[in-house]
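Bug #77: duplicate submission created two jobs. Keeping one. Sequence:
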Amino acid sequence: MRVAMNQTPRPVEIEGVSKSFGDRQVVREVSFAAERGEVLGLVGPNGAGKTTTIRMLLDIIKPDGGSIRVFGQPLDGAAKARIGYLPEDRGLYRSLRVWETLVYLASLKGIPNREAGGLANELLERVGLLAHKDKKVAELSRGMSQLVQFAATVLHRPDLVVLDEPFAALDPLNVRLMKDMVAERRSEGAAFILSTHQMSQVEELCDRVLMLNDGQVVLYGRLREIKLRFSDHAVNVVCERVPPGLPGVRSVRDMGAYTQLALDDGVQPQAVLQALVERGVAIERFEVAMPSLEDVFVRVAGRKP
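Kept job's structure:
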């Protein structure tokens, strides 16, 4: 078999990684990958091992075992320059001015000051903070400071971006702005790892999900496939009425805005849709009933995120 030598390596490949602190094992045999142009959601209850996994990925702490490859090789200085990281514990220099902060942080990624200055101006204008470029970070609101740190995270156009609770303290307009900027970099091939407790954000943004619980992988896969795995074999219908006696329908439940039909084992949703059409029912909406990611989380972890 001939192996192609020019295949682009994955941004992240982690295999069997473990980490203990003293006699407490916080990460156990965790494996996953991040692909180019996708957003991978990293979720789990507090203490599940998410932050430790991120810190091992970024070489902040060393794993006890397993392997971590970034862009096809162990993490080195060149690879680190291709990564952007927005930590949950924000860490800007409060005495520096906003523009100076961005230029300095860009220089740590190898960008010359003149180029970094232009990029800083562009990003500050994009996030609506250009008029505040000469303010000290300490003079900014919490939300403004977070936008500055996000700008610093993506200023050098990284190929891998790790975001830890990126939407905390942001109003809805700035959340939308940040999501749009994520979508732009993603369309250009950047990979994102999003760690958050906000399941609605994961459902909106993520292609795949990695769920940790007690340091172990308990769910990993494409978002839709995971939700289908936990569905209750039912369909939701919006129509004027649901006729009685539909074949294959075990029960009918009025949910207010829609009606949920629980199906017998082995009955396909398409068969129920055909039965409704044959009975002359005008259907406004028909869909497979999917649990929310939060519902899945509760069923797997036994508690709310």
